[in-house]
C-alpha cells in the first residue's frame, strides 16, 4: 500500500501520492545496499541507547547534539524513498533557513529523531536535536523538573546562542509542541517557522495535558487517580512525574511501528516531568501570534487521536496542515520519508 501525504494550506488542497507499487521478489543490489544502510543506522542508534541505559542516564549537562549523524554518508547514500534518485543538496542551497531544530516529546530524547536526522541531512538541510531537561542524555532528574521553563532550558539556551541574524525552523513532537510554543513566545525573531508534529499546539491559558484529556481524563482526576504517577519526593508528597507501562506504551504510541523501533524506545525512554505538563502557557498575539505555524497530523495515532488533532487545527489556525496516513504517535515514524519531505517543503515556502 502506498503512503499518502496530504497538504492543506489556506483554501488550497494538494494531494501527493507516492508508493512502492508492485515489487519484484528479487531484491536488487541497490535495494540491498539501502537496507544495509538503514540497518547500520538503526544499530548505531541502538548502541547509543544501550550506552545511555548503562550509564543510568547521568551525563555532564543537557546535550544538544546530532543523533546518529550521517554526514559521512551524504555523498553516497541515495534517499531510500525517492525511487533510488540521488537527492541533490544544491536544490536547497539557496534557502535562507536550513537549520532545523527537532524537539522530542514526553519520555523520549534527542535519540528518537535518528531517522529524520538522516533523511534531512540527505536533503541538504542541517538538523539539530536537543535533550530537554530530565530527558535523553540530560543528567537532570525528571522528578526535579517542575516548570516548563526548566524543562525547555536546553532549547532556550540553543536559541539564545544562535548568531544574531540566524533563524531556525523549530519542530516539536507531542508535548514538545508546548516547548515550541514557549520558545516562539520568547524568540519570535529567531524562529522562521514552527512545525507541530502530532503535537500539543495549545492556546493561551491552556496546559499541554489538556490536549490529552479525552484519553486520560481531566488534569484534576489524573492527579488524584492515575496509576502512572511517580512520587519522587515520597508518597505523602505531590506527584513529580509519570510513566506508562510498556504494554500500555506499545498500544498507544507504537501501534504502527516496527519491532526494532519499539525495542529501542523501551530501553531508552525515561519518566516524564509532571510539572511542565500541568503548566498553563501564556501566549500573546503580539509575539506567539505572529509566528508562522504548521501542523502535521498522524492519521493512525492512538495517543493523540486524529479527531483531537483536527480540533487543535480548528482552534489554532496554522498556516499549513499536512496529513500522514499510516503513522502512529512514535517520533521514529514508520514512514519517515513523509516527515522529511514535509519539512523540506515547509522550508521552501517563501
UniProtKB/TrEMBL annotation:
InterPro entries: AB_hydrolase_1 (IPR000073), AB_hydrolase_fold (IPR029058), MES/HNL (IPR045889)
Keyword set, alphabetical order: Hydrolase
Region (Disordered): 61-81
A GO term, aspect molecular function: carboxylic ester hydrolase activity
Top-level taxonomic group: Eukaryota
Start-end of Low complexity biased regions: 61-74
Domain AB hydrolase-1: 100-337
Pfam families per record: Abhydrolase_6 (PF12697)
PANTHER family: METHYLESTERASE 12, CHLOROPLASTIC-RELATED, METHYLESTERASE FAMILY MEMBER
Name of the molecule in the record: AB hydrolase-1 domain-containing protein
